[in-house]
Amino acid sequence: MSFKPATYLGIDPGTEQSGFTALYPGGPKHTGVFQNTELLDHCEKVLAECDQQGLGVRVGVEMIACYGMPVGREVFETCLWIGKFVARFPRVTGHVEIRKVYRREVKHHLCNSAKANDANIRRALIDLYPPTGGGAVPQIGTKAKPGPLYGFKSHAWAALGVAKTAEANWHILETFLQSQPTTTAYL
Predict the structure, then answer these.
(1) pLDDT by residue (tens digit) across 9-37?
(2) What pTM does this model have?
(3) What is the distance, to the nearest Å, from the Cα of residue 64 to the centroid of all Cα atoms in its chain?
(4) Does any domain span residue 163?
(5) Has residue 40 been placed in a domain?
């Protein structure tokens, strides 16, 4: 059995926009915050690029979790988008694996603490990359001298956290159940 290098796609879903990053073996690419409808098309382009490079694709999608509090319309809208993202991948290509990544798993993997917040996670992600750019945070860099994380903002950081957690913990993450068409017999 030969090992096929993989690209890990991280998605931080939202009601209208979602964070996305593609974590290639050489580092992150195609990062940003996209309108959900645009992200579906963007993913197809990334999958085609991975296919051309002979890379496998593993997708980590941040999943909604119950914390015992009431939720509103936005949570249900986000759930619908998670379903759309998951349903889209198998139709695009057959070599995509998809896993659920819960926020608590990202916190534990990157910060070793369930109490970590977005700033802690961002700092932990920055510390994973070499300081090759310019400016005060050379891992991010500047326009003139960009670092490996140049261009990351808002939900793209969360998507990178999802991708890094998926990369490190793929074998223990939950899969999405892919329903198969069934025939129902009525009596």
Answers:
(1) 999 999 999 999 999 999 999 999 999 99
(2) 0.90
(3) 14
(4) yes
(5) yes
